[in-house]
Amino acid sequence: xxxxxxxxxxxxxxxxxxxxxxxxxxxxxxxxxxxxxxxxxxxxxxxxxxxxxxxxxxxxxxxxxxxxxxxxxxxxxxxxxxxxxxxxxxxxxxxxxxxxxxxxxxxxxxxxxxxxxxxxxxxxxxxxxxxxxxxxxxxxxxxxxxxxxxxxxxxxxxxxxxxxxxxxxxxxxxxxxxxxxxxxxxxxxxxxxxxxxxxxxxxxxxxxxxxxxxxxxxxxxxxxxxxxxxxxxxxxxxxxxxxxxxxxxxxxxxxxxxxxxxxxxxxxxxxxxxxxxxxxxxxxxxxxxxxxxxxxxxxxxxxxxxxxxxxxxxxxxxxxxxxxxxxxxxxxxxxxxxxxxxxxxx
Length: 346
Hints:
The protein is an alpha/beta fold. Helix content is 32%, strand content 23%.
């Protein structure tokens, strides 16, 4: 797996960057990550819904006016980071691309399009070319899982994955966060979910498909194969929304083609950039979303143990901030790679 230095030296070239959906949860995180990583932005072009056009946002001690999609295209940014939903992306990403703007899209609109790359930079950034004008950012739950799977796949070859997710309300958006906080304080308010989420679990994320799985579950199945470039990997998923802030958690059972050595697994994971191993049961060390993942770009893994029912399998627990590595940070890492590799210019 590759290592990525996200920050830039001031001497490097600067560029115009558009953030589409700049006022949403993920868009706001994209702005935070761009600033934290010193991404070389000379002009920020924040884009939001028509109702927000003309509003002012503050970024890097400056005021920036929110503009329309058409005005953003006319400004000719080098890169547009999209986080405005699938329908918006389907309509507008091709128009940005036709204008020569490289789109990095956080929605599910383009992920399984065979003509579009689905990128986790540590795994498959090298497949990108200058001709890739619409690049898909994977599902948040998929990103953190494949970050752990890939180095182990190189060691033992992954045969089958069984994953159950515990996904934060932040994955739904501000409306869901508000619902949780309203319920917790006993206030009436708009519902993001069909049911109460406080003190509850909802075993449905996205719509149900004909096979009985939800769209979120099938994203994990299909995106894992595409990112890792191996259709032979079997994946089955159960995705659950939980009343949690700070990130998504996953219980993952991984079956390999041969018996793994747990010490070798730990050594492999502990040396991967972007992964933090937290696996000391004797001192109660294991990853948790609010305590460890929140506002971190790392993928945390712990509770590593051999599967006593299958000699070729292990169990593990994976946690990551779904708004950061699961969305905003991964998108900025892709932009970083494009710039460093000369695949896009100011």
